Amino acid sequence: MALDGFSIASIISELKNTVLGGRIDKIYQPEKDEIVLNIRSNKNLYKLMLTANASSPRIHFTNIQKDNPINAPLFCMVLRKHLSSGKIIDITQPNFERIVNIHIESINELGDYSEKILILEIMGKHSNIILIDENGKILESIKHISFDKSSVREVLPSKQYVLPPSNDKENIFNINFQNFKDKIINAKMQIQPFIYKSYNGISPLLASEICLRANLDCSLECSCLNTTQIKNLYNVISEILDYVKQNKFSYSIILDENKKLIDFTPFDFKLFKSFEKVEFDSISSLLEYFYKTKDLTYRLNQKSQDLKKLISQNIERCIKKKQIQEKTLKDIENRDKLKLYGELLTANIYAIKKGMKEIILNNFYSENYEEIKIKLDENLTPSENAQKYFKKYNKEKRTFIAMQEQIRQNDEELVYLESVLNSVNTCLDEYDIKEIRAELAEQGFVKRQKSNKDNRQKNQKKAKPMHFISSDGFDIYVGKNNTQNDELTLRFAKSLDMWFHTKDIAGSHVIVVANGKEIPDTTLNEAAHLAAFYSKASNSSLVPVDYTPKKFVKKPNGAKPGMVIYETNKTAYVTPNEEIITSLTKIN
């Protein structure tokens, strides 16, 4: 769900329990719209992140390390000037809005104690981080908003700070039954929008949850409610308000049937009772995981979009090329008849006269000696007609031989591209995408990116294969792209290590390290599941997985990355089971 008033209240509760009374040690601004405060409190060091990013504004503790710019931005410098060594004396949420005020006591230029307020406004694309003094004057903001950008209010240094417009919403903590009843009776809208449009801090999702708990249809018009229904609705809202008053929060991430993130909740939602949930001990750990996963997925999609498009276009090209090649083979499948016609004409040349349009000859190559009608060019001599058939036969024979090689190359390219597309779809981080892009550049599918010395040094970090520990304690490695597949199979694996790959299906190379031991069936089964799961057939049933000792796996000369041949293999048929995958210990 969006960070509404209830989620922010749970964050503030956590902040008060950990850093209230703490001192700000260091201040960083790793992104243009994000700051990180290092806070020392009760002999512990906390990293508090505040971000005004339009797509995911939020505040929570973080453990993620980010590179900071060599030269601190202006906003960061202002914060360091006013807040360094400052003591956090209060953390508030005005009017239960999506706003967090961090009150900080510090010493000013004159040596006197003064209070500054660091404000995070969580307002979607209008989100901002603002520093004001004790008189409410804006000292600086991470985003400057002038009247040419917003006619509602200015956010500029030296201006007086005013709260964002509330759109006539009321503080839900000031709710009472009579006022609520009067308001809902006169509302000319449905229940769900009435709830989140009338009161601060309520998201549309929470409004739907309130309706569900009150046994009311969200689309029901407010004017249709009777007193009992209004009372039920009011009681549900009061019950949820008690969660905040009593700090009765429980943090969960909601997953769909494919284990993908749907949403998160600060307390148990009946809306998601049939969905799988992952519980967290704190709102910060939940938000860290949720947005890290969400942001990573978004960034990977953005960075891999052009690669997917390029690979898909080349796959389509190979498929069309294959169709043309098959049609060409179909057209020349009767080429041997041309040779036969030429030989029959040569053998019967004495019986052919120039000007004839056709001739019927006996096929002396056939046991039945059947008659064959052969068309002739009346303008050619008998010998020239025979040579015409021989020439056409030789041309189609050369076409057939050339086509066999072209088909082989096209099929190899198609298999290769499908393997690369599978690698792109299973990328886990940006380094995986960089390796795949470099691999495609090496194969001539994309242009090499120019990079200066600094960029080359930055990109020296290499992506590593996935590393799992089987239930029997054996190391299992899974390649994430063809470069890693080659590295694993051809250079890393020993001759008696076991090699796995889906049969005739694009996928990862999987290596089980034997270390001179016999590999148990349990580990073999788990490795087969990994090979099937990280393949194009991850959503299929009874996927064939070939496995054999690495010594039987070879790479043909000139073969593309990841392409190998093997012999004396066995085949296991497995249905990819994510529970088996997640049960394995994964080494980062």
Q: How would you characterize the overall build of this protein?
A:
By secondary structure, the protein is of the alpha+beta class. The chain folds into 4 domains: 5-141, ibrinogen binding protein from staphylococcus aureus domain (ibrinogen binding protein from staphylococcus aureus fold, Roll); 172-283, Helicase, Ruva Protein, domain 3, CATH 1.10.8.50; 302-456; 466-587, no CATH class. 38% of the residues lie in helices and 21% in strands. It has helices at 5-18, 74-83, 177-185, 191-198, 204-213, 227-245, 283-331, 335-347, 382-425, 430-442, 453-458, 482-492, 521-533, 578-583; strands spanning 23-31, 34-41, 44-51, 58-61, 87-92, 99-107, 113-121, 128-132, 138-141, 251-255, 261-265, 276-280, 358-362, 371-375, 466-469, 475-478, 498-502, 510-512, 543-549, 553-554, 565-566, 570-574, 585-587. The longest helix has 49 residues, at 283-331. The radius of gyration is 36 Å and the shape is elongated.
What keyword list fits this structure?
588 residues; alpha+beta; ibrinogen binding protein from staphylococcus aureus fold; Helicase, Ruva Protein, domain 3; 4 domains; seven-stranded antiparallel beta sheet; five-stranded antiparallel beta sheet; 14 helices; elongated
Order of strands across the main sheet: 22-19-17-18-16-15-23
Calculate the terminal CA-CA distance, rounded to whole Å: 29 Å
State mean pLDDT (0 to 100 scale).
90
> How much of the sequence is in beta strands?
15-25%
Largest sheet: 7 strands, antiparallel
State the secondary-structure class.
alpha+beta
Question: How many strands appear in the DSSP assignment?
Answer: 23
The domain count comes to 4
Total of DSSP H or I helical runs spanning 4+ residues: 14
Shape descriptor: elongated
Low-confidence stretches: 452-459
Helix % is 25-40%
How large, in whole angstroms, is the Cα Rg? Answer: 36 Å
